[in-house]
Design goal:
This protein is mainly α. It has helices at about 1-120, 125-155, 160-175, 180-185, 205-250, 250-270, 280-380, 380-535. It is elongated.
């Protein structure tokens, strides 16, 4: 009977120990799952924060680039306007000067005609006339060019397009003037020069803003998708936790049934010879356990089916949403392509209209130039030709006089060159003498400087030997003493700390010693009682008596 009780007690202890091991393993697994989920959420949060930081940085960069582009665009527009204004002012000034020159030449021609008509022209008057003709003959050619320029300018000033065409031509010339390599050589490579740089290559502000908006919308869409995925995973995790809690609530029932089954088995084995009625109860319990297991399996299958259906519905909804987003994106892309084509078509129409206007203006300018040439040959070519024929004889006389003056001038110029050469020779001799004296003085000063530097180096060496070495050695000695004192203090503190910890550990072990001795005595007492009971049951049993610890701490 005692043997049966001991075996039953031992089986119960083993089952309890096994159950505790299972519970501990389950708790460890749950704890690891929680830690894994927390770590995964932390990693995703860190990733999301990093992506938001990158997005903010990109937004700041795009804003900075947009501001620089606007600043550059305003600067270029102001420069273009200033150039147009400057060109207009210069044209106005040139026009006024040409008008004044024309009035002056007209007045001179009228005075000449009046003098010729009156017949009061002497030899001196011939000279003045020749001088005047030499003065206004060149203005005639200038007036010819100016007239053509004024006529074309009058034709083009009636409309604004000619001026704008000139501005465009000047801008194109300025663009062809500088290249990318010259700009990089002049101003250096800047951070915004990663792509190929073209001068005054202004992008459309509207397209740039649309591009930045599209980038921001795509980034926001990606963030929303990431947030939805995180929410979906979080909901799945909460559902798993709820299911695990529900399964934990249902788990003790099988354990209790197992305990009942084990107790029933042990009791049936113990009292099999006495009572036979327990077999029917045991069969009923087994049947109930099987029914419950079948119900639990059925409920579990239903839950899994429901969960699978929910996941399929969610996947279908997500696919539907993704298809709708794809359709909307495709529609937006088609609309953007259509807008781009419409814009290109309008730009081509505008370019064609501009080309037609330019061709028309060129034809009008050609007609105006031809008309001006005909009028010039008709009204300004015959009279000057007649005057040239009449003045050729007078110019022959003037040429002879000019030759005489030129001979006298050459003689005087030769004498002047000889005098200048003599003066330059004397000045060069004086300069050479002054250079020799300067070199002599500088060499003397350099020798004095060398001796002075030698003296200063000797003084510095003596100062180093007398003062700096002793100061360095004294500083090193002070540092060594301070370090030695610090190490001594640290060693003393370490020794005192070691003694304190050692005494604390000994006192703690001494305080727990009576409790340990009491437990050992109780254990030995129970063991002796069990041995006595076994000896009563088994007469041949002779146990080995262990050492018994008494209350006084002695071994018996």
């Amino acid at each position: 009977c005692l043997h049966r009780h001991l075996t039953a007690w031992y089986d119960l202890v083993l089952s309890k120990r096994l159950l505790m091991g299972k519970i501990k393993a389950m708790s460890d697994w749950k704890l690891m799952l929680k830690v894994w989920g927390a770590w995964r959420l932390h990693a995703r949060r860190q990733k999301l924060e990093m992506e938001t930081e990158i997005h903010e940085r990109n937004v700041i960069d795009t804003e900075r680039k947009r501001l620089t582009a606007e600043r550059h665009y305003t600067h270029a527009v102001l420069k273009r306007c200033f150039l147009a204004w400057h060109q207009f002012i210069t044209e106005m000034i040139e026009r006024k000067e040409l008008e004044k020159e024309q009035e002056r030449t007209k007045s001179k021609i009228m005075s000449l005609l009046n003098a010729v008509a009156s017949g009061r022209m002497s030899n001196e008057d011939h000279r003045t006339e020749d001088g005047q003709y030499s003065q206004f003959s060149s203005p005639l050619t200038i007036a010819h060019n100016a007239r053509s320029h004024n006529n074309t300018h009058k034709d083009c000033c009636s409309t604004v397009t000619k001026r704008h065409l000139k501005m465009i031509e000047t801008d194109s010339n300025m663009q062809q003037k500088y290249t990318d390599a010259e700009i990089r050589k002049k101003f250096g490579t800047q951070p915004w020069m990663n792509r190929h740089f073209v001068v005054n290559n202004f992008e459309n502000r509207y397209t740039a803003q649309q591009q930045t908006l599209r980038e921001q919308q795509s980034q926001i869409r990606e963030q929303r998708q990431l947030i939805e995925e995180l929410q979906y995973h979080q909901r799945q995790q909460t559902l798993r936790q709820q299911l695990s809690q529900i399964s934990d609530l249902h788990l003790p029932a099988p354990s209790a049934e197992v305990e009942e089954q084990s107790s029933a088995i042990t009791s049936s084995h113990a009292s099999c010879a006495v009572v036979r009625v327990n077999n029917t109860k045991y069969l009923k319990v087994l049947k109930n356990v099987e029914d419950r297991a079948a119900k639990r399996a059925k409920l579990k299958a239903e839950r899994e089916e429901r969960k699978r259906k929910q996941e399929e519905d969610k996947l279908a909804q997500l696919q539907k949403i993704e298809e709708e987003t794809q359709k909307t994106l495709e529609a937006e892309r088609k609309a953007k392509i259509e807008d781009y084509r419409q814009r290109k078509r309008l730009e081509k129409q505008k370019e064609e209209e501009k080309r037609k206007e330019l061709a028309k203006l060129e034809e009008m300018n050609k007609l105006a130039d031809e008309h001006y040439k005909r009028s010039l040959m008709k009204y300004r070519g015959l009279l000057p030709f007649k005057k040239i024929i009449s003045l050729s004889k007078k110019q022959w006389v003037m040429a002879i006089k000019h030759r005489d003056r030129e001979v006298v001038r050459q003689c005087i110029q030769a004498w002047r060159l000889f005098a200048d050469e003599e003066i330059n020779r004397k000045q060069s001799m004086a300069d050479q003498m002054s250079q020799v004296l300067v070199i002599k003085h500088t060499f003397q000063k350099w020798k004095n400087y060398k001796h002075h530097m030698k003296f200063l180096n000797q003084r510095a060496a003596r100062h180093y030997d007398s003062h700096l070495k002793s100061q360095c050695f004294s500083a090193w000695v002070e540092w060594k003493t301070t370090e030695r004192e610090d190490t001594q203090q640290k060693l003393e503190a370490a020794d005192s700390h070691f003694l304190k910890t050692l005494t604390r550990k000994t006192f703690l072990s001494w305080r727990d010693l009576p409790e340990k001795l009491r437990r050992e005595q109780e254990r030995e007492k129970r063991r002796m009682e069990l041995r006595q009971k076994v000896a009563e049951l088994i007469p041949d049993f002779s146990p080995q008596m262990p050492n018994v610890v008494t209350e006084s701490g002695e071994l018996s």
